[in-house]
Amino acid sequence: MRFSLDPKLSIPKLSKFHKDFIGFFILFAFISISLAFLGLAWILKILQEESFQKAEVIQVQEENSQKPEIPKPKLPGKPQTQIVQNKNSNPLCKGVTEPWKLVPDPGKEGQFIICNSQTGNKMATADELNSALNNYRVAHGFNALRIDGTLCAIAGERAREISQNFSHDGFKAAVERHNLQKSAGENIASGPLTAVQFVEWSWDKSPGHRQNMLSDWTEGCGGVFDRFAVYVFAK
Fold first, then answer.
1. How many CA atoms, within 13 angstroms, populate the side-chain half-sphere of residue 133?
2. Which H or E run includes 29?
3. Measured between alpha carbons, how far is residue 133 from residues 124, 142, 198 in Å?
4. What is the largest CA-CA distance in the chain?
5. Is the pLDDT confidence value at 87 over 60?
């Protein structure tokens, strides 16, 4: 079977409408492809910026992790020692005959009363307190503490404060006032007692205060006001 094309037949010419339609379609396709490329480029740019920001955050975190942390002031422990001059001056000492007997105060958590301290001595000075405490540490195999001026100022202020409020409540505020960027602790007591009596008879009999005196401190200083004594430790 054979086919032949009539030479008289020809491909019809496109009308103006069809030409415009094809042109519009080509233009639309070109614009769509261009927008797609622009969108892809925008997405790649965002991903690159996010990656860069993450890298910066990681770098900052690594730098911060390498910076030495400033030690926060260590809050003092709860144990306190209040000196009672004779067994009749506090109801907790009634019936107690043992000299220098440490009796817990049920009304104040962590506070102790020392009954029968049998004192009548002249009140210690701050210098005597510093000397007695360092002698005590050395006798127990610990280093003597370097006397620090800032700690002396804190101890002096605290001695006045505990004459009005016998507690550790104001210690943190005193540390912050002097911008002390070290670990710190304090011992408090009331007398009047000699420096040796404060250290070796009073604080030594209170577990919390004894632990403070025999810890790995590097600096310290005592403060005295009236019959009240304070010792501040730091490292």
1. 34
2. helix 16-66
3. 12, 11, 9
4. 143
5. no
Protein fold of 80-234: Pathogenesis-related Protein p14a (3.40.33)
Model pTM? 0.59
The pLDDT of 65-79, averaged and rounded, is: 47
C-alpha torsion sign, points 80, 85, 90, 96: positive
- At 192, the amino acid letter reads P
CA 6 to each of CA 3, 10, 11, 14, 187: distance values in angstroms, whole numbers, following the listed order? 10, 9, 12, 21, 121
Strand 111-115 with 80-83, pairing: parallel
Which range (35-39, 130-134, 190-194, 211-215) has the least confidence? Answer: 35-39
- Does residue 70 carry a pLDDT above 60? no
Q: Residue 87 corresponds to which tokens in the numbers above?
A: 């067994």
Residue 208 and residue 200 in contact, taking contact as beta carbons nearer than 8 Å: no
**Adjacent-strand bridge partners of 117:** none
What rounded mean pLDDT belongs to the chain? 77
Q: How far, CA to CA in Å, does 234 sit from each of 61, 66, 204?
A: 30, 24, 19
Distance CA 187, CA 210 (A): 9
Distance of alpha carbon 37 from alpha carbon 19, whole angstroms:
27
What single DSSP character describes residue 89?
S
Residue 173 binned pLDDT confidence (cut-offs 50, 70, 90) = very high
For the chain, how many residues are written? 235
Query: Which stretches of the chain are assigned E, i.e. beta strand?
Result: 80-83, 101-104, 111-115, 146-147, 184-190, 219-225, 228-234
Q: Where is average pLDDT lowest: 74-83, 93-102, 154-163, 220-229?
A: 74-83
User: Taking the domains of the chain in order of start, what are their residue ranges?
Assistant: 20-56, 80-234
Tell me the residue type at 211. Answer: Q
